[in-house]
Amino acid sequence: MAKSKKNGDEDYGDALYDLQVELVKLQRDVIANNRKLLIVMEGRDGAGKDGTIKRITEHMSPRETRIVALSKPSDREQTQWYFQRYVSHLPAADEIVLFNRSWYNRAGVEHVMGFCTDKDYERFMATVTTFEDMLIGSGIELLKFYLDINKDEQAERLEDRRNDPLKQWKISPIDQVAQEKWDDYSKARDAMFARTHTPHSPWTLVCADKKKDARLNIIRDILNRLAYDGKKAILTTPDTNIVMPFNPDLYKLGKIAP
User: Fold this and answer.
1) All domains of the chain in start order, with CATH
2) 178-197 tens-digit pLDDT
3) How many CB atoms lie within 10 A of CB 6?
4) Confidence at residue 162, expressed as pLDDT on a 0 to 100 scale
5) Of the candidates 92, 107, 114, which has an alpha carbon nearest to the alpha carbon of residue 197?
6) What is the pLDDT at residue 9?
7) Count of CB atoms within 10 A of residue 163's CB?
8) What would the 3-class secondary structure string for the chain be?
9) Pick from 127, 182, 219, 220: most CB atoms within 10 A?
10) What is the C-alpha separation between 146 and 250, in angstroms, rounded?
């Protein structure tokens, strides 16, 4: 499909179409070669995880694609090894699995809202990289994205949820205090980056204030980082002002919302 220009900007629909064609090629390769692909999407409330995951998966085979968005743990699950309820959702051969929030709930929401003890939190932070190393060692290809937005943008998006009857399912008690606990979430995010960004399991930061730009560039990043048969010879690289490997210098550059 030919790309068009509107007011000097890349046409979103055309760009998305081309990228989704490439995602279908990627999935074909995953299936043909018994690969296991796991994509973790984390970020603040309202950062755009749902919309991004929808655009990634909407033309993929539903048999080999799963979206995992777990609710709060049951009484029984609360007695289990913390990672246990996530393990059953990991990809088998031929599968692409996307986590809409993941075990990193413990580093963010649970820690900020007091849903876990300090001991639970420290135990998680001390063991999560070992857990991920085990996943990677088992043949799982793991990509971790953190969608970051500024405080005013979050406020606008949460207000939109409250006013849109089609988005009522997104509203939760957690949303109501997201702005109030903004600084606490920032501290939790920064601690997560500092302690869980490793060479074998790195974080990718997404500046997600503009939803459509974030979606396109996350998909570009996925396609550029993964090998697959039939990859387009000239594939647009992600905008490094939008999607970038985490680096502590990004704070000084103002790329991470305070």
Assistant:
1) 9-70+82-252 (3.40.50.300)
2) 999 999 999 999 999 999 99
3) 10
4) 84
5) 107
6) 55
7) 8
8) CCCCEECCEECHHHHHHHHHHHHHHHHHHHHHCCCEEEEEEEECCCCCHHHHHHHHHCCCCCCCEEEECCCCCCCCHHHCCCCHHHHCCCCCCCCEEEEECCHHHHCCHHHHHCCCCHHHHHHHHHHHHHHHHHHHHCCEEEEEEEEECCHHHHHHHHHHHHHCHHHHHHCCHHHHCCCCCHHHHHHHHHHHHHHHCCCCCCEEEEECCCHHHHHHHHHHHHHHHCCCCCCCCCCCCCCCCCEEECCCHHHHCCCCCC
9) 219
10) 13
Overall residue count recorded for the chain in this entry: 258
Alpha carbons within 13 angstroms on the beta-carbon side of residue 191 total 17
Q: Among 8-22, 134-148, 213-227, which stretch is predicted with the lowest mean pLDDT?
A: 8-22
Could you give the dihedral angle defined by the CA atoms of residues 55, 59, 61 and 62, in that order, rounded to the nearest 10 degrees? 60
Instruction: Give residue for tokens 């963010």.
Output: 108
Q: Which of 89, 106, 101 is nearest to 147 (CA)?
A: 101
Instruction: With beta carbons less than 8 A apart as the criterion, state whether 98 and 39 touch.
Output: yes
> pLDDT tens-digit profile of 212-258?
999 999 999 999 999 999 999 888 999 999 999 999 999 999 999 99
Quote the Cα angle for 90-115-204, to 5°.
Answer: 45
Q: Which two tokens stand for residue 33?
A: 């070669």
Report the candidate in 211, 215, 209, 188 with the shortest Cα–Cα distance to residue 104: 188
| Separation of alpha carbons 134 and 90, rounded Å | 12
One-letter amino acid of 29: D
pLDDT given for residue 167 in this prediction: 76
- What distance in Å separates the CA atoms of residue 96 and residue 196, rounded to the nearest whole number? 23
pTM of the model: 0.92
